[in-house]
Amino acid sequence: MIKKWTGFLMFVITIEITLPFSAFCQIERWVYRFEGPQSYEQAWHLTVGEDNSVYVTGQIAPGSSVDGDFTIIKLDTLGNVIHIYSFEGLYSYDWGYRILLGEDGNIYAAGVISYHGVVCSVDTQLNLNWRYDVDNASEIRSITKGETNRIYFLANIGGWEIEDIAVTKMDCLGNIDWIYSYGNQDAEIGNEIIKGLDGNLYVAGKDGFNGNVSDSLLVLSVSPDGNLRWVHYEGGINNNAVARSIVYGNDNNIYVTGYVNDGDNYGRENLYIIALDTLGNKLWDYRYDGPASFSDWGTAIDYGSDGNVYVTGKHTVYSSVASQIVVISIDRQGNQRWIYNYSTASTQDEGYSIVYAPNHHIYVSGVSRVASNDIVIICLDTLGNEQWVYRYDGPDHAGDNPNYGIVYKDGCVYVPAQSYDSTTLDDFTVICVADTTLVGKKEEKEILPTKTILAVYPNPFSEKTEIRYKIQDTRYTIADVVQTFRFAIYDATGRLVSCLTLDAKRLTPVVWDGTDDSGRRLPSGVYFVVPDRSNIDPASVVKIK
């Protein structure tokens, strides 16, 4: 297993330095890789705890095993392994697909063991509380929090081409409250389940029609006591449509994305967004036909606290294979606000996941192919302006892919992934990137004093030093400054050694003890304190023995 730090090369080794703010828009905090002997290991999904511990589920092959196991891994804030839980079924078809942190403080994960669905609960030390096998389910596709000490999970049950959608309510001890199933004589597939602010459940997926010649986009709602409230369809015979992602907005409407095909030719899908009220009534729909009018679809959707809808996916730019990552913003009336596309020389780019963060940035994870697949994380503001793009190209520059799910917490973005290495082949991978750009106006004030410095005392220091924010412009008071900001500490070679956060409003200094983020004592020398804000000058500090 490997953790990698990426710093920025500086050709200045003097006490006074000036560095451009744009160079520090994002920092790769760490990359974790589990490198077992299995050729198909990957991280499928993750969640972050209140203490910023990272819980990841997927598939690994521990020890000398060659078969992948259903796995949960707990990482600390530096990407170090704390605990690993894995379970090997009778066959090699085992993996965790979704994970969440329950209201009771336990971890819940769902996926597949030995070709059937499974849900399990572990504590924060990854000790197994219980496991529930869903023998008639091919897999558990989605899981969400319910009322106090309750969870809901979405399964597809039955055989090939005759699957039904099953919604199950379960308590925190693994006992079933009820199971609701929906289906007819064709294949009904549920892709995602959410719980609305109104307490009801909403499922997005597809419903087979006419002997599976075509599919209908399906959204259904189930009450907390397990009764069907309504079903909404889009498409049908000779008109393929699929719902891939769903979100419940703070305006008490439901938003869904996927694709529709008007039946002219296979592959000519339009990216599709639909808004429904809580009674299943259609409010509006939006179609996006990309530059090549061929194979455009939405893969993930989120609702921003600004009242707008954000979708990522792909659009085709020419022929039937050249695609780009696309991000679209729609207002609550269904009007297009803007379209962003990530353009490279690639022929196979696609956005996988999207999240609207409390700092009013939109983060997108996806895949971008140059010589081979790379993992990309894109940061946009609410107007669609690109803030930064992070690319991860694994050790062998081949076969790196994110999975569906991106999480933002406390300034960091987390992505589960799979990355190829010629020795260990596909590896279970987690990426953590810190966003050091300015936050949005609604989260923090944008009034920034023109004369501000970082005060470091004592300097030089031996055991520890204090870093404090000072205002030199008398036109401003402490109430005018931003609440918090982050800064990085680099050594004289430009290597990142630590990232810290300072609370400006409390005037509380940050104490740096001369160690890196792993707790190792650093040698004597000159170190540079670089804030994430352009109006604050960097500071230098000298560490002596």
UniProtKB/TrEMBL annotation:
This is FlgD/Vpr Ig-like domain-containing protein. Residues 475-528 form the FlgD/Vpr Ig-like domain. It comes from candidate division WOR-3 bacterium. It comes from the Bacteria. PANTHER family: ENDOGLUCANASE, LIPOPROTEIN. InterPro entries: FlgD/Vpr_Ig-like, WD40/YVTN_repeat-like_dom_sf. Gene3D superfamilies: 2.60.40.4070, YVTN repeat-like/Quinoprotein amine dehydrogenase.
